[in-house]
Design a protein that fits this description.
3 strands, 152 residues, 5 helices, three-stranded mixed β-sheet, mainly alpha
Length: 152
C-alpha cells in the first residue's frame, strides 16, 4: 500500500482511536505530523518521534513516511510505537522531581537514562498489546479492512 499523507493520517487516527481505550488514554489528543526527519549525529535514522505533554494530555507525533518505503506494516509499527510513548504519563511526575535533584552537569546523563527507560517501557507495552490481539499485523489488517469497507 502506498503511504500517502491522507493514508498516513487516516491510519494514524485509526491506530490512536483503536488503542486509546485499551491504554486508558481516552482523554488524550494526538496531533500527527508527517514530514522528513533528520538523521541522528551517529547516523541512525529516526522513523518517528513523540513529543508528549503529560500535563495537557497531548501528544505531537512526527513520522517520516518516506523512511518506511511503502512498507505498510512497518509504518503501522512506528505509529503504534509512538502512541505508546503517551503511556509514560504515570512516570512524568517522578521524572520531573528527579530532574530537580540531578546535580548540575549530569542533566545529559539523566536524559539518556530516561530515554532508554522510555524505549524499554514502550517495548514492554508492545509485547502486552501483542498478546491482547493488538499486534502490528492485526492493526494493519484492521485499517486495510476499514479502507475496503469505505470503498464499497
Amino acid at each position: 500500500m502506498e503511504i500517502t499523507k491522507k493514508t498516513a493520517s487516516d491510519c494514524a487516527n485509526y491506530i490512536a482511536d483503536t488503542l486509546k481505550p485499551v491504554l486508558r488514554l481516552n482523554d488524550w489528543s494526538f496531533d500527527w505530523r508527517f514530514e522528513q526527519m533528520d538523521r541522528h549525529a551517529e547516523g541512525s535514522v529516526t522513523m518517528g518521534q513523540a513529543h508528549v505533554d503529560y500535563n495537557r494530555l497531548e501528544v505531537v507525533i512526527f513520522v517520516d513516511t518516506f523512511r518506511h518505503e511503502d512498507d505498510f506494516v512497518e509504518f503501522v509499527d512506528t505509529l503504534r510505537h509512538e502512541v505508546l510513548h503517551a503511556t509514560h504519563f504515570m512516570w512524568s511526575r517522578a521524572i520531573n522531581i528527579f530532574r530537580e535533584m540531578v546535580p548540575d552537569g549530569f542533566e545529559a546523563l539523566a536524559a539518556a537514562y530516561w530515554a532508554d527507560a522510555c524505549e524499554e517501557h514502550v517495548a514492554y507495552f508492545g509485547r502486552i498489546l501483542d498478546t491482547l490481539g493488538y499486534d502490528v499485523e492485526t492493526l494493519a489488517e484492521g485499517f486495510t479492512a476499514r479502507l475496503a469497507e469505505q470503498a464499497k
